[in-house]
Specification:
The complex is a heterotrimer. By secondary structure, chain A is an alpha+beta fold. Chain A is 63% helix and 11% strand. In chain A, helix 6 packs across helix 7 and helix 15 runs antiparallel to helix 17. Chain B folds into two domains: 75 residues, Helicase, Ruva Protein, domain 3 (Orthogonal Bundle), CATH 1.10.8; 50 residues. Helix content of chain B is 55%, strand content 0%. Chain B has six helices and no strands. Chain C is built from five helices and seven strands. Chain C has a five-stranded mixed β-sheet. A two-stranded antiparallel ribbon of chain C has the order 1-2. The chains are: A alpha+beta, B mainly alpha, C alpha/beta. Chains A and C meet through helix 10, helix 11 and helix 12 of A and helix 1 of C.
Chain lengths: 666, 164, 176
């Protein structure tokens, strides 16, 4: 009964999504107010029904309804309740439903936070989002229905993939989808602007908070995925340039370019058509990612079970949505008009360089990810493109962009002076260079790459400090607190996000530069030394878990003879599927992790004898994810700026909003 | 003055932090630790692809074939073959698919040189756009301007009294 | 024309979609063999049924022959096996079996149970000959000509279509 209700709810949601799109777009085109007014309720109704469907699927999981085929292949009666709930998005059909649900969440968000926008703009934005919802609902109902029944129902389910039975599964996909899907709002704003023919600074100010929040979610989602892979896969890796990872990273790179480009469009009215193109591109890459992950064209550990029919559908949808928007862009972007004028040395020019570097980096990731497919399609054989390629290509491309992070905020809008910049920044440059050259010696081993990475991170930090100081000394206010308060959240958000980048770079540089690995056979009581720590292996004991059998090892970590931590790495054999998982034990530290995982016992059946043990030292690795979270936090802080929260009464927005007059241009 | 103190404090903090960090040398050999051969093989195997897995390196895979291939790689290394020899051995049997670092040949030129070509193109685009837009507006006082108008024009151009 | 540059993103996208479309019909996990057109790697292994005798590639020079990689633990092999038995009865081309990473007893028992189409089978206990031939999945079949050059590789079980359209015509041509 419940699954049928869910299916009906999806069908109703589809009808409402169709209404939302047609009323929205036709209504705005015709200027028909009654149609435009109907769009919000249609959109909200669509969300309600998708939520009902999602609730029905969740219920089926929690209630162990194995007559539903999807539940039978992704759950098990012994599965803990928390994982039964997250199992809803553990497979293809349910994760598409999650996608659709989150699209509904963003849609409803737009319906509530758009009171100050003109009716025709809101109608168009919701209309475009309605088209995307329609596509996904059609896809769900016709090729990926999670409510299909299976008769006869199996006695028990095949269990959720053990790799997914983890807290990471609770939060990583929802955060990731909030990001991916959130770019649909920026996309919808861009299409609405092209359709309506209005593209100005006000449009950018409306778009910006939506884009920044989506970007922040995507940042968190990717960081969570990386951290989860680190502790769950057993060999201490945190990024593999796997096609699915790249599928989330490309929208992120584009989104970063987009938030910077929007800044220029908002403040200076420049880069208008470029910003629109970026908005289209960011969401297109989200859709492309969906295609790559679910169509089977690329091999990946993350890929869902594939089916050619699904691949064809998504490709057709991709072709329509992206092709349609790029056609609209080709037709209308030229009429939007050129933006402002700015000098060769100016904040605009540094931001343009930033954008170009980020997009070139994104294009390189795309090239590397799709190249095997290109060659295969041309019958030129099969190759593999993996981390050695991406590492070699990506870092040199991003390094100049990071360097510009120190220069850009110091440069004036419209016309900056290179000698002036040099005067302000030369001291920062000197400090960063000197420290970067000296630190690796202190840390134990010098290499040019480590010095380069540290230079970039220190440069960003020191130049940010110089920037803040310049602001404070130039301020008219009296007293430190007043001076600090004079700056907008937007400004502090930028500083925080840039600091996050620096922290991230420190983490990556030091981990790659100084990590060490020991893969050794240890007898009971044997100790191995690594990086000043002593690791003593104390054997492995079996034990039961909720739905698995565990072999738990004990490893004592000592420094200078003193016991620091007792680590318990595990090997789990899951009852339902028979799959084995290696669970690492990590001693987390501010300046590095000590990471231990079990290999295999030396003698196949003798768990009481010697075991292969893997010990990794990962200096500063937690700085990677801390940096990412700081970036996201910076984005959230920036969005709290008054100018976004003030309800703009004036529809025309002719005179610049009162809000930004008080804050210094940042 | 304050800024210099802040920077100095930052550097001192760095120095302090580094003393808290254990001086590590990447993969130093230790008593019961990995031998140089094992380390070399790990690194090599991290660049090779497991043929039967869903995108995993030869180093990380648990598959039977991966075991066999690791054994093969080890015996080749013990026989004195270099990393390049071992890679050539595997490529002769499995093709370029087995290498995660694609060889540089005519069909992969676009892959290896593409990004830098794109960068060059991007740089050219940047230059062209700047040339076109570079008409700097320098406010000069005309007879009709009042001081207020001049300041207004400066503000509108982003040249605030507050620096940057 | 000024409007051309606005169409550039669309043009790039159209090309991309074309590639993705073609990609849908390709299998990214299939690894083509680099041995095509090259001499078949030499082996000299004990026969499955007569362990005291050896079969070497040198013995097979001058014949066109098929090398079928199989194992008693391989499930997909059972799917193609009837085809091989038929093929052996038709006596067009000799089929030699490579019993890959298998226990000889288990191999013999399997053939006794499912039929033995092989002129002879050899045992590759540790899989080294398999590695030389670039075997990564079982079953696989190689077609080797009179000069000992590999001319065709079938990845996965043999199908009637593959036999009819690719392998047998090639066999007939090579046997001339």
């Amino acid at each position: 009964m419940i699954p049928e209700i869910g299916q009906l709810a999806l069908a109703l949601a589809l009808c409402l999504a169709l209404a939302q799109s047609s009323l929205g777009l036709a209504g705005a085109a015709r200027g028909d107010r009654s149609w435009m007014v109907a769009v919000r309720p249609a959109a909200q109704g669509q969300f309600v029904f998708v939520a009902i469907a999602f609730g029905c699927l969740t219920y089926s999981f929690v209630a162990n309804d194995f007559t539903v085929a999807y539940v039978a292949s992704n759950s098990n009666s012994a599965l803990p309740v928390a994982y039964r709930v997250t199992g809803v998005w553990g497979g293809h059909e349910g994760s598409i439903l999650l996608w659709t649900l989150i699209l509904g969440v963003w849609t409803v968000g737009v319906t509530f936070f758009s009171r100050h926008l003109p009716d025709d703009m809101v109608a168009r934005v919701l209309g475009v989002m309605g088209i995307v919802s329609t596509g996904f609902l059609l896809f769900t109902l016709f090729t990926s229905n999670p409510f299909l029944r299976v008769f006869p129902a199996p006695a028990d389910g095949r269990d959720l993939n053990p790799l997914l039975q983890d807290p990471g599964m609770v939060i990583h996909p929802p955060m990731l989808y909030m990001g991916y899907v959130g770019f649909s709002v920026a996309f919808a704003f861009a299409i609405a602007a092209l359709l309506g023919g209005r593209l100005d600074a006000t449009w950018a100010r409306w778009s910006r908070p939506w884009t920044t929040v989506a970007w922040a979610f995507l940042t968190i989602g990717i960081a969570l995925g990386s951290g989860w892979a680190y502790y769950t896969l057993g060999w201490g890796g945190w990024w593999f340039w796997d096609p699915v990872e790249n599928a989330s990273f490309m929208p992120w790179l584009t989104g970063t370019a987009l938030i910077h480009s929007l800044a220029v469009t908002e403040k200076r009215g420049a880069f208008k058509s470029w910003t629109v193109l970026l908005a289209i591109l960011a969401f297109s890459l989200s859709l492309l990612g969906t295609f790559l992950v679910r169509s089977g064209v690329l091999t990946s550990v993350h890929a869902f079970a594939t089916d050619p029919a699904r691949g064809v559908f998504i490709l057709a949808f991709l072709a329509l949505v992206v092709g349609g928007s790029l056609t609209l862009f080709a037709w209308r972007a030229g009429k939007v008009g050129l933006g402002g004028i700015f000098g060769v040395v100016s904040r605009e020019s540094t931001l343009l360089a930033n954008n170009i570097l980020l997009i070139v980096a994104m294009a390189s990731v795309l090239l590397g990810t799709l190249y095997p497919l290109f060659l295969d399609a041309l019958n030129l054989g099969k190759i593999s493109v993996g981390p050695p390629y991406f590492d070699a290509v990506f870092y040199p491309l991003l390094a100049p962009a990071v360097f510009l992070m120190g220069v850009g905020p110091m440069a004036r809008w419209n016309k900056a002076s290179l000698p002036d910049l040099w005067t302000r920044l030369k001291w920062a440059l000197g400090v960063a260079v000197v420290a970067a050259v000296i630190l690796p010696f202190v840390l134990g081993h010098w290499s040019p790459l480590i010095a380069a990475g540290l230079f970039l991170a220190l440069w960003v930090v020191v130049s940010s400090v110089v920037n803040l100081r310049t602001r404070l000394t130039g301020s008219h206010r009296h007293g430190l607190v007043a001076k600090l308060a004079a700056n907008s959240p937007s400004y502090y958000g930028m500083l925080l996000a840039h600091l996050g980048v620096a922290v991230f770079i420190v983490g990556v540089t030091l981990v790659k530069g100084y990590e060490s690995e020991q893969d050794v056979r240890l007898d009971l009581g044997q100790t191995v030394d690594a990086g000043g720590y002593a690791f003593k292996f104390l054997g492995v004991v079996p034990g039961p878990g909720p739905n698995y059998r565990a072999l738990t090892g004990t490893v004592e970590v000592r420094k200078d003879g003193r016991l620091i931590e007792t680590l318990k790495p595990e090997k789990r054999i899951y009852n339902a599927s028979g799959q084995t998982m290696t669970i690492a034990a990590i001693d987390i530290g501010l300046f590095g992790d000590r990471y231990v995982s079990l290999g295999e016992p030396l003698a196949a059946d003798d768990i009481d004898g010697a075991w292969g043990v893997r010990i990794y030292l990962k200096p500063f690795i937690d700085w990677i994810w801390t940096g990412a979270f700081l970036m996201a936090l910076g984005g959230i802080v920036a969005v709290c700026d008054r100018r976004y929260r003030l309800a703009i009464q004036r529809r025309t927005g002719a005179i610049g909003p009162a809000a930004s007059a008080g804050a210094p241009a940042d | 003055m304050i800024a210099r103190a802040a920077i100095a404090a930052l550097l001192l903090a760095c120095a302090a932090a580094t003393s808290a960090v254990d001086p590590v040398s990447p993969n130093g050999e230790t008593a019961a630790g990995m031998s140089a051969l094992d380390l070399r093989l790990k690194r090599l195997e991290a660049e090779l692809r497991c043929l039967v897995c869903q995108n995993q390196t030869l180093a990380d895979s648990n598959a039977d074939l991966a075991d066999d291939l690791r054994r093969e790689v080890r015996s080749l290394a013990l026989a004195g073959k270099s990393d390049d020899d071992i890679k050539a051995y595997l490529v002769a049997r499995y093709g370029d698919f087995v290498l995660y670092k694609p060889p540089v040949k005519p069909i992969t030129w676009m892959l290896w040189f593409g990004p830098f070509a794109l960068l060059a193109g991007g740089g050219a685009l940047w230059w062209v756009v700047l040339r076109r837009r570079a008409r700097s507006i320098t406010p000069t006082a005309t007879k009709a301007d009042t001081a207020g108008e001049l300041r207004a024009r400066k503000l509108l151009n982003g040249e605030d009294d507050v620096a940057a | 024309m000024k409007s051309l540059r606005w169409s550039l993103p669309l043009a790039i996208f159209v090309i991309l979609v074309a590639f993705l479309w073609v990609g849908l019909s390709r299998d990214p996990r299939e690894v083509p063999s680099p041995l095509l057109g090259k001499p078949a790697p030499a082996f000299a292994l004990a026969k499955l049924h007569v362990p005291s005798e050896t079969l070497a590639t040198a013995d097979l020079k001058g014949t066109v022959w098929l090398l079928n990689v199989w194992a008693s633990w391989c499930v997909s092999c059972r799917v193609e096996h009837p085809l091989l038995v038929e093929l052996a009865k038709a006596n067009i081309v000799p089929v030699y079996g490579l019993d890959y990473k298998d226990e000889p007893d288990a191999g013999r028992a399997w053939l006794a149970q499912h039929g033995d189409p092989y002129t002879a089978s050899i045992v590759d206990r540790d899989g080294r000959v398999g590695i030389d031939y670039g075997v990564y999945g079982v079953p696989e079949t190689f077609l080797i000509d009179k000069a000992g050059v590999v001319r065709y590789k079938q990845i996965g079980p043999l199908t009637p279509e593959a036999l009819k359209q690719k392998i047998l015509p090639l066999v007939r041509e090579l046997q001339k």
